[in-house]
Amino acid sequence: MHRYAAPAALATLAVALLGAAVSTHAATLTVDVQQASATPGALMIALYDQASPWLKKPLRALRQVAGGGTTTVTLSDLPDGDYAISLFVDVNGNGRLDTNALGAPTEPYGFSNDASGSYGPPSFDQARIVVQGDTRTLIRLP
Questions:
Q1: How many domains does the chain have?
Q2: What is the CATH number of the domain that holds 119?
């Protein structure tokens, strides 16, 4: 009779954990992208949740019309945690960040925390933002 007590306890624990997981509040990240110049094009946004695929494999990728001023983008159903954003305005509509012969971007671009790197992009840690519940951040583009 005691051998059935352990599976029953495990089943109760599993139901309790499932209930806790279902009741977890999903976070919403609102990103305000402020453009200094009215550069029309598509705003290409990439959201990362880990340093290892930073700037290579985003958790989410979005495309939204931008036309200057401030564009607001909302990312919902995120678990609370650390994230970083990279984005650029795709001026010519080719779906990629264009660069010059030296590899410097020729289209407006930015990162969360308005992070900038030395001779290259910033690290994930420099661009890291903490998302808990409803979070809002601002990224300024040149």
A1: 1
A2: 2.60.40.1120
pTM: 0.80
Find the domain containing 50 and state its range.
27-141
Tens digit of each residue's pLDDT (9 = 90 or more) over 69-108: 899 999 999 999 999 999 999 999 999 999 999 999 999 9
Q: Cα–Cα distance between 69 and 96 in angstroms, integer? A: 22
Domain-located, residue 58 = yes
What are all long-range contacts of 104-111, with beta carbons under 8 Å and residues at least 24 apart?
107/39, 107/41, 108/35, 108/37, 108/39, 108/141, 108/142, 109/141, 110/33, 110/86, 110/139, 110/140, 110/141, 110/142, 111/84, 111/85, 111/86, 111/87, 111/139
